[in-house]
Design a protein that fits this description.
heterodimer, A: four-stranded antiparallel β-sheet, B: alpha/beta, five-stranded parallel β-sheet, 15 helices, binds iron/sulfur cluster
């Protein structure tokens, strides 16, 4: 997993509530065997028309947002299914941080497992960041995870909260597996004590 | 301190406990299928890791397999075929036991585990699929996980977890004739709602649960997830042990006796505390059927479609209106008598031999109504064979049902078995979300007997009129 320390980038405004995982990545794209390559299908039903041509009105199709690494969105972002294709698609497009008033639980967890930082901020604050984002490349946001700050183009600093353990993992690019493997001796000791009758597959 | 069944299984699997209460939890059984595993194996390979315990891991194909009788010689949809081929490469490379389509033991992962004696009481069982809760009927702590966690279990045989809360759902009394485990669980979800179990593991108990056979218990736990619960659980008892004895992967001889002695210590202690308690009377349960697009939108077959005008909450009212429009139903209409186009008997909820017997009992000597397409999809190759040996298959075929190979089939619109837009289906599966069985498809969830009754009458029908 890539480390997340600071990020200065264009933010794309997606001022929609309840963006569900089906909107992020429609179900027909789940038949893949890769984590990668989903970026082109991100928000497919909003991004392309029925012939597959780009919808120029959709935010990520506008030249100024094609290289956005931050997404500012509405309430309850990521609701729906537990599939990880949603964060994979965001990551593959290049999104490393999503800011919204609230997130669906599983999606929120899945973001951290994939090196994406989800930041929940009060509605009014998100509205200000949404305004910044609408200025495109002229108004880049800075995310400083160490100091837990979002820095607006004006220089105003906005504090956010993040679980200490998850922050540690993101800052150091640690995935859960690496951390759990630090418990390998305890796992081996547990296995050694399992009852003899326990059958094998 | 008095402990619940959940507490006991949890405590027995804690490898390590961190300061914030997160536990490294040991996983006894990891079931793998083709849709949620490719990226996990890819991650394992990229990191140069192995499967820590292949002897705890079983792979099957189920979601994307065709169920037509000619499927071994047919060409599958290219993307599905690639997912299956990828699983086959992965199990070969990592040395995982695998039941391919050509193996009689192949079937829906949640049917295969108990059937093979792989899912046992007291175990922790996970799978990259939300209906892993099914295996809780064995007295095991079983829950669904995402793909990162699939990779985590493959690599470490553990998960990082915090304990859930305990909820007890007690069903007192005796079920009336024509009612089944499916009706119990639909009635529970109707009562507590799709978020009623959020953050909890639900233990199902009481006289009516004790009286269920294993198939009925598996059906109940299967749908615990539809009540929002992390898992469902039923205490193991003599019914459980008799079911397990002599299954291929179950302990044998003295090992079996040792296992049973341990399993008998698992049921919740007298006086154990639950965070939440719900009690239902089995005698009050009538065959259930859903009218809307989530499992809590359920009514007795004798009931009428609810009227949004009676709902005080504005958001809920709008939701009901949307559901009625999608389902093309009118407020106040009796649900019985609603015309259906398709009947699907199958899925990890209701595709075991007991379910097929129940359907055959209703279909026997009758004919599928004109214009209705009715499918029976056994949960595994072994269920299919047994049904053929018992004469059930012939009964159903004579009545005009399609007799298919094992797989998830029309439970989800991901393989060739799909509803077409606007089709109305009486289905024994577990989800009636918009488009779940195919875009624009309309799903009514019900029991296998009720599904067979709908097939032979062409309309939603109270099965008790036919038995
Ligand atoms: S039968 Fe349906 S619910 Fe069960 S595992 Fe297959 S797709 Fe999921």
């Amino acid at each position: 997993m890539d480390k997340f320390t600071t990020l200065t980038a264009t933010a794309a405004p997606l001022n929609i509530k309840n963006v569900d995982t089906d909107k992020i990545i429609p179900a027909r794209f789940l038949k893949t065997i890769k984590r990668s390559g989903l970026g082109k299908s991100l928000f497919a039903d909003m991004r392309y028309d029925e012939q597959g041509a780009e919808n120029p009105a959709f935010v990520l199709n506008q030249p100024k947002y094609r290289a956005a690494h931050i997404l500012v969105a509405g309430d309850n972002f990521g609701c729906g299914s537990s599939r990880e294709h949603a964060p994979w698609a965001l990551l593959d497009f290049g999104i490393r941080c999503v800011i919204a008033p609230s997130f669906a639980d599983i999606f929120f967890n899945n973001c951290f497992k994939n090196g994406i930082l989800p930041i929940a901020l009060p509605e009014a604050v998100v509205a200000k960041l949404m305004d910044d984002a609408s200025l495109g490349t002229n108004a880049r946001l800075t995310i400083d995870l160490e100091r837990q700050l979002v820095v607006r183009p004006s220089g105003e600093e906005i504090a956010f909260t993040v679980d200490a353990f998850r922050k540690h993992c993101l800052l150091n690019g640690l995935d859960d597996i690496g951390l759990t493997l630090e418990h390998a001796p305890a796992i081996a000791a547990y296995e050694a004590k399992q009852p003899a009758w326990l059958p094998k597959i | 301190m008095a402990r619940t069944l959940f507490d006991k299984i949890w405590d027995a699997h804690v490898v390590d406990r961190m300061e914030d209460g997160t536990c490294v939890l040991y996983i006894d059984r990891h079931l793998v299928h083709e849709v949620t595993s490719p990226q996990a194996f890819e991650g394992l390979r990229a990191a140069g890791r192995k499967v820590r315990r292949v002897e705890n891991t079983l792979a099957v194909v189920d979601h994307n397999v065709p169920t037509s009788p000619e499927r071994l010689s047919e060409t599958n949809e290219p993307e599905s075929a690639l997912q299956i081929a990828t699983l086959e490469q992965n199990v070969a490379e990592f040395g995982v036991t695998y039941f391919p389509m050509s193996d009689d033991r192949q079937g829906i992962v949640h049917v295969v585990g108990p059937e093979q004696g792989i899912s046992l009481p007291g175990m922790t069982i996970v799978c990259g699929d939300s209906h892993t809760s099914t295996h809780g009927a064995m007295g095991a702590l079983a829950f669904g996980i995402g793909t990162s966690e699939v990779e985590h279990v493959l690599a470490t045989q553990t998960l990082l977890q915090k304990p859930a809360k305990n909820m007890l759902v007690r069903i007192d009394g005796t079920l009336r004739p024509g009612c089944t485990g499916k009706d119990i669980v639909l009635a529970i979800i109707g009562k507590i709602g799709t978020a009623g179990g959020t953050g909890h593991v639900i233990e199902f108990a009481g006289e009516a649960i004790r009286a269920l056979d294993m198939a009925g218990r598996l059906t109940v736990c299967n749908m615990a997830i539809e009540a929002g619960a992390r898992a469902g659980l039923i205490a193991p008892d003599d019914t459980t042990f008799a079911y397990i004895q002599n299954r291929p992967f179950a302990p044998k001889g003295a090992d079996f006796d040792a296992a049973v002695a341990y399993w008998r210590t698992l049921p919740s202690d007298e006086g154990a505390q639950y965070d939440k308690l719900v009690v239902l009377d089995a005698a009050g349960i009538v065959p259930q059927v859903t009218w809307g697009t989530n499992p809590e939108a359920v009514i007795p077959i004798t009931g009428t479609v609810p009227n949004p005008a009676d709902e005080a909450d504005e958001t809920k009212r709008a939701q009901m209106e949307r559901q009625l429009a999608y389902m093309a139903l009118t407020a106040g209409q009796p649900i019985a008598g609603t015309r259906i186009d398709v009947v699907f008997i199958g899925s990890c909820t209701n595709s075991r031999i007991e379910d097929l017997r129940e359907a055959a009992h209703v279909a026997k000597g009758r004919k599928v109504a004109a214009g209705v397409r009715a499918l029976v999809v056994p949960g595994s190759g072994l269920v299919k064979k047994q049904a053929e040996a018992e004469g059930i298959a012939d009964m159903l075929i004579a009545a005009g049902f399609e007799w298919r190979e094992a797989g998830c089939s029309m439970c989800l619109g991901m393989n060739p078995d799909k509803l077409t837009p606007g089709q109305r289906c009486a289905s024994t599966s577990n989800r009636n979300f918009e488009g779940r069985q195919g875009p624009g498809g309309r799903t009514h969830l019900l029991s296998p007997g009720m599904a067979a009754a709908a097939a032979v009458t062409g309309v939603l029908t109270d099965v008790r009129e036919l038995i």
